[in-house]
Write a structure and sequence with these properties.
The chain is mainly α and about 170 residues long. The protein has helices spanning about 5-40, 45-55, 60-70, 70-85, 105-130, 130-150, 155-160; strands at about 90-95, 95-105. The chain has a two-stranded antiparallel ribbon with strand order 1-2. A hairpin with a 2-residue loop joins strand 1 (about 90-95) and strand 2 (about 95-105). The longest helix has about 35 residues, at about 5-40. It is elongated.
Amino acid sequence: MPKSPNAADGRARLLADCHEAAHEVFAALNRSAGPELLSLDITMGQFKAMATLTMNGPQPVGELGRLLGISEPAASLLVDKLEELGLAVRERDPQDRRRTLVTATPAAEELAGRLRQGRREHILAWLGALTDEELGGLTRGFRGLMRSADGRVAPGDAASAAPIFAEVPRG
């Protein structure tokens, strides 16, 4: 049975409101990490490469470039700079001596860990200020979002999310 136009409008507004609220939370999270990130003496590309290595482990230069969406020569130059900064090293792959892997150094792991811990502390402080009802709703919402991200949402449910990008008048 198709939804009534009013129900569809209500769903579109709810989706838009949720999207806006998530955007505001992620923006606040980014602002809260600002001072620590701005104190780093590395470029955004170097930061992304370091973060990719600390999250995904050792990578061949070409794979690192693919993950970052850049060419292998550009990735190689990026790795050169990370090596100069003491944040990465090139090592022979123990499984295939013909291959070289880029590995995050302990300094890179420590820096990434410090940044993650700062973000975790901010999030836990914010969550700690919520009521039990708000925490329960947020947890259910995040679990539902992960079902959707993992493709575990029924086809009809996923189709109903399409209006999220529609223009919704603000009142």
